[in-house]
Amino acid sequence: MKGTYLGEFEELVLLTVAVLNGEAYGISIAELIEQESNRSVTISTIHNVLYRLEDKGYVKSELGGATAERGGRKKRLFSITATGHAVLNESKQLRNKLWNSMPELGF
């Protein structure tokens, strides 16, 4: 595994892959991120992140079936690995710990 550091956008993509539960591919990931975060993303950015996450061992991919709407091309489907799930949990625990430690700021 190359490294365990998970950047903010990597975390967002990894969470989206987990939410899509085996039905995650470039366009479905981009659409869900845009819908939930009101943030514009490009397919090439999503693919770059997916390949980095795959190199780190956080996601795995396989080719799905060919579809007529894709001109007979197959989709590359991504799913989260046990390692990816563990790193998401670590990230969540750290964020929750910091949020719970924050004092009332009185704003």
Would you give an account of this structure?
With 107 residues, the chain is an alpha+beta fold. It has helices at 8-20, 26-37, 43-56, 82-101; strands at 59-66, 74-80. Strands 1-2 form a two-stranded antiparallel sheet. Helix 1 crosses helix 2, helix 1 packs across helix 3 and helix 1 crosses helix 4 (82-101). It starts with 7 loop residues before the first helix and ends in a 6-residue tail after the last helix. The model has no long low-confidence stretch (mean pLDDT 89).
Question: What are the salient characteristics of this protein?
Answer:
107 residues, alpha+beta, two-stranded antiparallel sheet, elongated
Structure, briefly:
This protein is of the alpha+beta class and 107 residues long. Helices cover 55% and strands 14% of the residues.
Helix/strand class? alpha+beta
DSSP helix fraction = 55-70%
Please outline the major beta sheet.
2 strands, antiparallel
Q: Based on DSSP secondary structure assignment, what is the total number of beta strands? A: 2
Number of helices: 4
List the helices and strands and how they pair.
Blueprint: H1 8-20, H2 26-37, H3 43-56, E1 59-66, E2 74-80, H4 82-101
Antiparallel strand pairs: 1-2
Helix pairs in contact: 1-2, 1-3, 1-4, 2-3
